[in-house]
Write a structure and sequence with these properties.
The complex is a heterodimer of chains A (257) and B (284). Chain A is α/β, with parallel strands linked by helices and 257 residues long. Chain A has helices spanning 2-23, 46-59, 72-80, 93-101, 150-162, 175-183, 194-200, 230-241, 243-251, and strands at residues 36-42, 64-70, 87-89, 110-115, 117-121, 142-145, 170-172, 189-193, 205-207, 217-223. In chain A, helix 2 packs antiparallel against helix 9 and helix 3 runs parallel beside helix 4 (93-101). The radius of gyration of chain A is 22 Å and the shape is elongated. The N and C termini of chain A lie far apart (66 Å). Chain B is built from 15 helices and no strands. Chain B has helices at residues 2-10, 16-38, 42-49, 52-85, 91-103, 106-117, 124-129, 138-164, 167-174, 179-208, 211-216, 227-237, 239-261, 266-274, 279-283. Classes of the chains: A alpha/beta (257), B mainly alpha (284).
Chain lengths: 257, 284
């Protein structure tokens, strides 16, 4: 019985592995006839990178750009676990430094954009937020990012700079969650990036405040060392840094690096 | 449970290919857990899981899961009774809706809860006027957990009620027992094992609840940041802490589920004295 069971387990493992291998369609495998550049980019880059990718494909016939958007640290983890990315665009320098320190990207990363925090309030500004200090007013439900994520670290820096101690009702893991809490009207105000407010259009209103520039978030980009199509990866990075890429980024609210 | 185990040991003619498939199934569950064990930073394990934020999150998780389980029992038992014993138009529809949270992505549950109990929500506006705030409070966590865990109790209990059949209830009623007496003295003792396993499943599901909580309740240490949310946050900066906390959550879940499924649960003994025959076996 025992050996039979062991054999069955081995067989089962084989079946499982074969089954999973069958399911795993890797981007980049299929497109060898026409080349594919797989770009892992921070979620905030969705609009400008989607537009740029279309233009890049038009300018390089036969090349397909596959975009994967998620939180920067998620993407970095995926890349360090061997995800088939050619280019990585991070929303903060620390996350990129983690990959570059591990030797997983080509050469030094290049900064291509910057982003600053702003106050987002629900349409109509129900709590009448007019300044950064209003966020700490008793009764105001403020939501920020947790200090562990870049937008939270920036919120902390801005708060210290303004001499205001925030007492948030929630410290979210991502800026998207902060925006969601504001857009749904659950929170009276939230600290998000300028680009988030622009992308959310009429779902939230912006209350700009002086001192936001005390915490500027820089976005670095680099080619992944295991990139399949190195020259195409390099070309895409040039496109991001070039006038067209910069124009798309400006349009989405990003600042110069 | 006990009866089924005895029957399995009496008959053991499982085809080998079934065993092979079972092994695949077991591997699918065990392999990732084993892989996670391999990544645990053992020298740092105790400091990591006993940090202040970890203990706060664990305590909050245990408290909210216990509260949700109580709510699941309070509302799930009547629901299961109505679904198993009732006969009314729309019963199947009601069942489908009650079971919906089983198949809904929790984040969808969170959005739905937001539109019901949020500040701008259906009930939330009146609650706000009454001075009751739900969003960003521990109440929101309990609500989210109850929402996702309730079907587990209803499914378990409805199954137990159906297998138990209504013969003994009918006999009790002919002997002059009132419906509430029948429920208390006959029905509930008969299905106590089913109720217990349903409650355990609800507790376990509440403990693991993440998506609805994140969407609906927010995340603040000691108030709404349960262990799964703490793991999600820690993983941004400290992979070791995230893995250690994950293992802690697995251990808690295994202990809770393991303890309640095994051992001489008082639930089993009560039901044994209460049932004259073995209604489960009769029904099967």
């Amino acid at each position: 019985m025992r050996p039979a069971l062991r054999a069955a387990a081995a067989l089962a493992a084989g079946v499982l592995a074969a089954g999973l291998a069958g399911c795993a369609a890797r981007p980049g495998d299929a497109g060898d006839a026409g080349k594919t550049v797989t770009v892992f980019a921070a979620a905030s880059l969705k609009a400008p990178f989607t537009a740029l990718a279309e233009q890049f494909e038009a300018a390089h016939p036969g090349t397909t750009v596959t975009l994967s958007f998620a939180g920067s640290s998620d993407l970095a983890t995926q890349i360090s676990q061997g995800a088939p990315a050619d280019v990585f665009a991070s929303a903060d320098a620390n996350t990129m430094a983690r990959l570059s320190g591990a030797g997983l990207v080509e050469g030094p990363p290049r900064d291509f954009a910057s982003n600053v925090l702003t106050i987002a309030v629900p349409p109509g500004n129900p709590a009448s937020i007019a300044s950064f200090a209003d966020l700490a007013r008793p009764g105001v439900r403020t939501v920020i990012c947790a200090a562990q994520v870049p937008c939270g670290a920036a919120a902390k820096a801005v708060g210290q700079g303004a001499g205001v101690t925030l007492k948030p009702v929630s410290e979210e893991s991502s800026v998207t969650d902060v925006l969601g809490k504001v857009a749904s009207g659950e929170a009276d105000a939230g600290l998000v990036y300028v680009t988030d407010v622009l992308a959310a259009r009429d779902k939230v209103q912006e209350v700009p405040f002086p001192g936001a520039e005390q915490a500027v978030n820089t976005y670095p980009i680099a080619a992944v060392r295991t990139a399949k199509h190195k020259e195409h990866a390099a070309a895409f990075i040039e496109a991001v840094l070039g006038p067209d890429g910069q124009q798309f980024l400006r349009g989405a609210g990003f600042g110069t690096p | 449970m006990r009866i089924r185990r005895r029957r399995d040991s009496a008959y053991n003619g499982i085809p080998r290919w079934v065993m092979a498939m079972a092994a695949v199934g077991a591997l699918l569950v065990l392999l990732p857990l084993a892989a996670m064990l391999g990544r645990v930073n053992w020298p740092q394990f105790i400091p990591l899981i006993t940090s202040e934020s970890s203990l706060t999150a664990l305590g909050l998780s245990l408290r909210t899961a216990a509260a949700s389980t109580v709510l699941c029992v309070v509302f799930g038992v009547p629901l299961a009774l109505v679904l198993a014993r009732g006969d009314f138009p729309g019963q199947r529809l009601l069942r489908s809706f009650v079971l919906l949270p089983l198949v809904l992505p929790p984040v969808v549950g969170g959005i739905a809860l937001l539109y019901a109990f949020g500040r701008q929500g259906l009930l939330g506006q009146s609650l706000e006027i009454a001075g009751i705030q739900i969003a960003f409070t521990t109440t929101a966590v309990v609500l989210a957990q109850t929402f996702v865990a309730l079907p587990f109790l209803v499914v378990s209990l409805e199954g137990a009620l159906r297998s138990a059949g209504s013969r003994y209830e009918a006999v009790a009623a002919t002997l002059g027992a009132r419906p509430t007496t029948v429920l208390r003295r006959v029905t509930l003792p008969l299905v106590l094992p089913g109720l217990a396993s349903g409650a355990v499943l609800s507790f376990a599901r509440s403990l693991g609840e993440f998506g609805a909580t994140l969407t609906f309740a927010g995340s603040l240490q000691g108030v709404t940041r349960t262990l799964p949310l703490e793991i999600y946050l820690q993983r941004e900066t400290d992979a070791d802490a995230a893995v250690a906390l994950s293992l802690l959550l697995v251990i808690v879940a295994v202990v809770v589920v393991g303890l309640s499924y095994r051992g001489p649960a008082p639930a089993g003994s009560v039901s044994r004295t209460a049932r004259p025959g073995a209604p489960w076996r009769v029904a099967a």
